[in-house]
Amino acid sequence: MTLTAEAAHQSAEDFVTTFHRIREEVSKFIVGQQSLMEDVLLAILCGGHVLLEGVPGLGKTALVHTISDALHLDFRRIQFTPDLLPADIVGTQVLMDRDGSKVLEFQQGPVFCNILLADEINRATPKTQSALLETMQERSVTVAGETHPLDSPFFVLATQNPIEQDGTFPLPEAQLDRFFFKLLVDMPTHDEFSEILNRTGGNQQPTIEPVASGDDMHRLGHTLREVPIDETVQDYLVRIVRATHPENEHAPEPVKKFVRHGASPRGAQAMLAACRGRALLDGRYHVAREDVAAVAVPALRHRLILSFEGEAEGIRSDGVIQSVIEHLD
């Protein structure tokens, strides 16, 4: 059902107000990283999962913890290690004694929550990593032929270290494609360093209060999907995604030279949801080309598979995507 102009305006204001309320609560503890924080919150409000990449000590885990504190949702953390088993994540059948009879009962794993922190996800084996595939896509777990639905909403916020290779297992492309955004966590500035020490070096720690609930997440997600997008803007979005494929006639030279496989339709879906959110946060109830271009890199950087030449020359997906945007502009 299409919203009236007044209802649409009210829903948009509610979206912006709730977003800013969550961001302000998280900012009580997290120093700087405003763009990163906003992208994580945007992905969550769009119903997507996020992969955070950065060297140790930059606050990736702290950011996820703080966001979970600001949301009235069930939070769990899994520390991924090479000896972690799929059953340690999703749960398993356990033999129980019930009134003198032995029966198998399903014991839920930590994945049965609203926000799951998958810490150092690339330290687990591919078999264990794949245990998250069904949960991320279908929001359910299947064990012994029985499907168990997860609570709603459900988000996976995963972290990984980009420089340490020993004892790690790179995420397969199919799993990377399930992440709404891949976000890079940068080093704080000098002033931010000082403020981090001020906030964490004393006996007093900021108190984070929950300011949004699961019902709020559902309502704001509905608001997002109502934001209109002009046919020409959606065409621009589709052309960006298609131009990441080297066989496409509109692909720029860097794509043809350095990319083996381009982004999937799931990448276009992520861009559509994210650019609607950006439009609302910018005070508009329509999507502009600038919104599409702004979300292209975080939504597509993990969905490009570079060729051997691209990897050998140290080409980064971010630069390739920027070349696509410049080529189509």
Would you spell out the secondary-structure blueprint of this structure?
Layout: H1 5-26, H2 34-45, E1 49-53, H3 60-70, E2 71-72, E3 75-79, H4 86-90, E4 91-98, E5 101-108, E6 115-119, H5 126-129, H6 131-138, E7 140-143, E8 146-149, E9 155-160, H7 173-176, E10 179-184, H8 190-200, E11 212-213, H9 214-226, H10 231-242, H11 253-258, E12 259-261, H12 265-281, H13 289-300, E13 305-306, H14 308-312, H15 317-328
Parallel strand pairs: 1-9, 1-10, 2-11, 3-6, 6-9
Antiparallel strand pairs: 4-5, 7-8, 12-13
Short description:
The protein is α/β, with parallel strands linked by helices. Helices cover 47% and strands 18% of the residues. The protein has a domain of 103 residues: Magnesium chelatase subunit I, C-Terminal domain (Helicase, Ruva Protein, domain 3).
Plain-language structure description:
- With 329 residues, the chain is an alpha/beta fold.
- It has a domain of 103 residues: Magnesium chelatase subunit I, C-Terminal domain (Helicase, Ruva Protein, domain 3, Orthogonal Bundle), CATH 1.10.8.80.
- Helices cover 47% and strands 18% of the residues.
- The chain has 15 helices and 13 strands.
- The strands form 5 sheets. The chain has a 5-stranded parallel sheet.
- Helix 10 packs parallel to helix 13.
- The radius of gyration is 21 Å and the shape is globular.
- The two termini are 34 Å apart.
- 37% of the residues are buried.
Provide a count of the helices: 15
Task: Write the CATH architecture name of the domain at 227-329.
Answer: Orthogonal Bundle
User: In CATH terms, what is the fold-level topology of the domain at 227-329?
Assistant: Helicase, Ruva Protein, domain 3
Q: Portion of residues in helices?
A: 40-55%
The sequence of SSEs as H and E is: HHEHEEHEEEHHEEEHEHEHHHEHHEHH
**First and last CA, distance:** 34 Å
Low-pLDDT ranges: none
Strands of the biggest beta sheet: in what spatial order?
3-6-9-1-10
**Mean pLDDT, as a whole number?**
87
Radius of gyration: 21 Å
Shape: globular
Q: How much β-strand is present in the residues?
A: 15-25%
Structural class: alpha/beta
Largest sheet: 5 strands, parallel
CATH superfamily of the domain at 227-329: Magnesium chelatase subunit I, C-Terminal domain
Number of strands: 13
The first-level CATH class of the domain at 227-329 is given as Mainly Alpha
